[in-house]
């Protein structure tokens, strides 16, 4: 029977319908999928160590006969243990298993076994706890063994056996990289790489294989993104906006002077908008760096050239805020700015949609509501999305389809490391606003211990409120948890209501109805609430210049990007602002995170560190970008390879 790698995984001996169903949970359907299910780790079992050479904390392979078997009785609340005395011709060692009744039945005295595990010390004596075990075949050591991610119903031995068979069908697997690239990068061929990623003969061969497969994965990813970008650049003509309408007309009427970085970015946008190609540009800038002014200037050029513009924001609060800001900016130019959200009455919505279709609305601001099917524009020329990481690629696409090849501007206040931006936004040109408007005071950040620093933190909050300022207090959870030792927003709210009886304390969280959330934020903005206790729902949101304190409870539970976003909620007015992190730094990682927050307010430095500390998966819900999940490449560790690939 001719078996191909493109055949169903059931073609492999031992994979019946039941096992095939289990493999589906690992996204394995064909033999090729199985070959690309790479090991997550390896056990180096090339050398059998003598018992007298063992040291504490080593992970080793030993071979010896069982001299004694001691079964402990089950004691309520305690694990039942099985203790073995194993010896070779150099000495003996205790090997301990927990809750392994099946081993008690099969292990025999004076038979030779191989044990692979970590050496520890107990009462001065070395022992091996719960190792992997196999009957010694009298042959040499098994070599470097792959360890795979599994699901229930499959064992390591089964998957190793299947992989060996899958490799024998590999002849059809084509090497998709051109020979010159393989030679230039001194890489091994694909067959060699796949064979040695699963069953490496030695560490060098494993390194060569891993490099090749990491390169492949990043290469294909970049290729896919570049093909999207090329489609925008070449095939379709975009709108050529009038070069008679100058952005300077709008900028000169702003009540402040633009920074050098803002002017540079605007020049890039103006060039894009006047060209034939469709603009597809990402504006990256820290919280408060002035992205809204840039979006407004681009919208001015589009509208005065006879087109409509739309801005989509992730929350109603943010959409409303944008509408208020932009309406006042556009008043002198007789430009009509309107808001469309999910909470509008049917009658109001209907009227607004008609006006939009007839071209009576120049600039529409809204939430996801703007991508609904019945929302039609008269002549859409510019699409802006704010806080892009809250939207997927698909939503951005839906919005652009509302016009005939409109220009696209994407804004984010979540600084992304440059290398990662290449990946996530390979289909976009990137502009960076790396300068803050003059006069903005950096937020002072202080970390206090959860158990010993709380009183200091609360006193500080009290002093600021006494001066007429306001405070945010953020907790990781809404309700109390039996599992996690963290303060919930509800718990904090009750505590602070008692401690700050003279002041107005209010609770806000994501489970509330939108209208209720909006009302609370409006009251906070108007200064009617002194302390707003919340979950991360306020991470992206309202502008309250009078709020000068951000107190974050259990700060160790948040990622650096989130902490930085939360800190960006304060420091928006003329007063000095503060961020207090109440943390329990149990781990080295938690300590590093909070130290970085104390040391810098630069979002780009923080983003680089976040990527280093957490890896990209968590950093940025990669899946919602439509980016395939990486099986072997790690964006944090393989940045050098990524740069090579990019070139």
Tell me about this structure.
This protein starts with 16 loop residues before the first helix and ends with a helix. The chain has 647 residues and is α/β, with parallel strands linked by helices. It has a seven-stranded parallel sheet, with helices on both faces. Strands 17-22-21-18-20-19 form a six-stranded parallel sheet, sandwiched between helices. The radius of gyration is 31 Å and the shape is globular. The protein has 22 helices and 22 strands.
Summarize the structure.
With 647 residues, the protein is of the alpha/beta class.
Please summarize the sheet with the most strands.
7 strands, parallel
Structural class by sheet pairing and helices: alpha/beta
Helix content: 25-40%
The largest sheet has its strands arranged as: 12-13-11-14-15-10-16
Number of helices: 22
The overall pLDDT average reads 86
* Rg value: 31 Å
Distance from first to last alpha carbon: 44 Å
Give the uncertain stretches in residue-range form. Answer: 616-626
For the secondary structure, the number of strands is 22
Shape: globular
Q: Strand percentage, roughly? A: 15-25%
């Amino acid at each position: 029977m001719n078996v191909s790698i493109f055949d169903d995984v059931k073609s492999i001996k031992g994979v019946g319908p039941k096992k095939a169903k289990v493999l589906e949970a690992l996204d394995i359907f064909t033999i090729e999928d199985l070959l690309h299910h790479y090991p997550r780790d390896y056990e180096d079992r090339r050398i059998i160590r003598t018992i007298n050479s063992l040291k504490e904390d080593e992970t080793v392979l030993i071979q010896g006969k069982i001299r004694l078997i001691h079964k402990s009785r089950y004691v309520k609340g305690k694990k039942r243990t099985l203790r073995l005395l194993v010896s070779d011709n150099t000495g003996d060692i205790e090997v301990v298993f927990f809750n392994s009744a099946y081993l008690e039945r099969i292990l025999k005295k004076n038979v030779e076994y191989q044990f692979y595990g970590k050496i520890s010390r107990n009462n001065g004596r070395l022992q091996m706890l719960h190792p992997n075990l196999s009957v010694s075949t009298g042959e040499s050591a098994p070599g470097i063994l792959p360890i795979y991610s599994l699901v229930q119903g499959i064992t390591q031995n089964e998957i190793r056996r299947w992989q060996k068979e899958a490799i024998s069908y590999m002849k059809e697997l084509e090497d998709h990289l051109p020979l010159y690239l393989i030679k230039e990068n001194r890489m091994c061929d694909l067959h060699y790489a796949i064979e040695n990623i699963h069953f490496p003969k030695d560490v060098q061969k494993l390194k060569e294989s891993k490099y090749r497969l990491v390169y492949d994965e990043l290469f294909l990813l970049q290729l896919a993104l570049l093909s999207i970008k090329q489609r925008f650049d070449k095939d379709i003509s975009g709108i050529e906006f009038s070069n008679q309408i100058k952005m300077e007309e709008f900028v000169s009427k702003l009540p402040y002077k633009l920074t050098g970085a803002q002017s540079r970015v605007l020049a890039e946008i103006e060039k894009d908008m006047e060209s034939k190609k469709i603009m597809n540009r990402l504006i990256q800038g820290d919280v408060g760096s002035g992205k809204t002014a840039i979006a407004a200037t681009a919208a001015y050029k589009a509208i005065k050239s006879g087109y409509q513009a739309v801005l989509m924001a992730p929350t109603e609060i943010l959409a409303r805020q944008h509408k208020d800001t932009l309406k006042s900016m556009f008043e002198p130019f007789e430009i009509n700015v309107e808001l469309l959200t999910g909470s509008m009455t049917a009658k109001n919505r209907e009227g607004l949609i008609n006006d939009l279709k007839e071209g009576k609305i120049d600039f529409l601001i809204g939430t996801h509501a703007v991508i609904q099917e019945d929302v039609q524009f008269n002549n859409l020329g510019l699409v802006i999305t704010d806080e892009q990481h809250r939207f997927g690629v698909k939503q951005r696409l839906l919005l652009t389809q509302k016009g005939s090849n409109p220009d696209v501007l994407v804004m984010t206040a979540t600084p992304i490391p440059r290398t990662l931006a290449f990946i996530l936004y390979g289909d976009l040109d990137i502009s960076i606003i790396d300068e803050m408007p003059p006069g903005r005071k950096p937020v002072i950040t202080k970390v206090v211990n959860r158990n010993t620093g709380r009183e200091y933190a609360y006193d500080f909050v009290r002093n600021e409120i006494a001066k007429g300022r306001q405070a945010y207090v953020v907790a990781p959870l809404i309700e109390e948890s039996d599992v996690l030792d963290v303060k919930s927003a509800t718990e904090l709210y009750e505590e602070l209501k008692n401690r700050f009886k003279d002041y107005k304390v209010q609770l806000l969280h994501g489970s509330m109805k939108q209208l209720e959330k909006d009302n609370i934020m409006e009251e906070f903005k108007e200064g009617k609430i002194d302390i707003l206790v919340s979950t991360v729902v306020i991470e992206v949101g309202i502008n309250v210049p009078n709020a000068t304190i951000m107190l974050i409870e259990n700060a160790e539970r948040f990622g650096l990007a989130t902490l930085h976003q939360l800190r960006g909620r304060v420091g928006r007015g003329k007063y000095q602002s503060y961020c207090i992190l109440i943390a329990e730094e149990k781990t080295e990682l938690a300590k590093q995170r909070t130290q970085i927050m104390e040391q810098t307010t630069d979002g780009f430095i923080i983003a680089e560190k976040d990527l280093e500390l957490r890896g990209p998966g968590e950093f940025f819900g990669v899946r919602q970008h439509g980016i395939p999940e990486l099986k072997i490449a790690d964006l944090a560790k393989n940045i050098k390879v990524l740069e090579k690939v990019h070139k």
